């Protein structure tokens, strides 16, 4: 079983499924092939339109005047550091000086999974960007860091 990177195999399968449903069984192979080719062309046009729309949305988001959207990843990193600092440093010190027993505070496992995932991806992207990655690696780094190269 092959791996269909382009998605054309799925379009061809969909076209064949549509054709089997609507073309009479007594149609010749040439007629069936012609109909299948036309359906594949229409589906490919549709797929191209969807991809172009997605690309336009991403490009417009990266070109907008609101710079915060591009800085959202570092904000998640710094907010996570703030939460860690509060739970593991500030609150224990405050409880110690207040002479109170501090309740058992801990950040949930979901926080750690999400935060380390964001940090890991952001660090890899920033490292590639600072090393001057070009080509596909530069595009991926730009997508990660929000520079949109």
Describe this structure in words.
By secondary structure, this protein is mainly α. It has two domains: 55 residues, no CATH class; 79 residues, no CATH class. It is 74% helix and 0% strand. The chain is built from five helices and no strands. Helix 1 crosses helix 2, helix 3 packs across helix 4 and helix 4 packs across helix 5. The longest helix is centred in the first third of the chain and has 35 residues. The chain is elongated and about 90 Å long. The mean pLDDT is 77.
Write a concise synopsis of the structure shown.
By secondary structure, the protein is mainly alpha-helical. The protein contains five helices and no strands.
Give the N-terminus to C-terminus distance in angstroms: 36 Å
What's the total count of β strands? 0
Work out the oligomeric state of the chains in this entry: single chain
- Secondary structure class reads mainly alpha
Shape: elongated
Radius of gyration (CA) equals 26 Å
Q: How many helices does DSSP assign?
A: 5
**Mean of residue pLDDT?**
77
Count of domain modules: 2
Largest sheet, if any?
Answer: none
Key phrases:
single chain, mainly alpha, 149 residues
Record the SSE blueprint.
Blueprint: H1 8-22, H2 29-63, H3 72-98, H4 109-130, H5 135-145
């Amino acid at each position: 079983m092959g791996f269909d990177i382009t998605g054309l195999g799925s379009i061809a399968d969909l076209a064949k499924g549509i054709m089997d449903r609507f073309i009479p069984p007594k149609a010749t192979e040439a007629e069936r092939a012609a109909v299948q080719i036309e359906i594949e062309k229409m589906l490919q046009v549709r797929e191209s339109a969807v991809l172009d729309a997605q690309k336009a949305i991403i490009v417009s988001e990266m070109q907008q005047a609101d710079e915060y959207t591009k800085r959202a990843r570092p904000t998640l990193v710094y907010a996570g550091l703030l939460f860690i600092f509060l739970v593991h440093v500030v609150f224990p010190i405050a409880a110690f000086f207040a002479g109170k027993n501090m309740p058992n505070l801990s950040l949930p496992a979901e926080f750690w999974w999400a935060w380390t995932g964001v940090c890991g991806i952001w660090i890899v992207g920033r490292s590639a960007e600072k090393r001057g990655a070009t080509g596909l690696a530069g595009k991926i780094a730009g997508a990660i860091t929000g520079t949109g190269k």
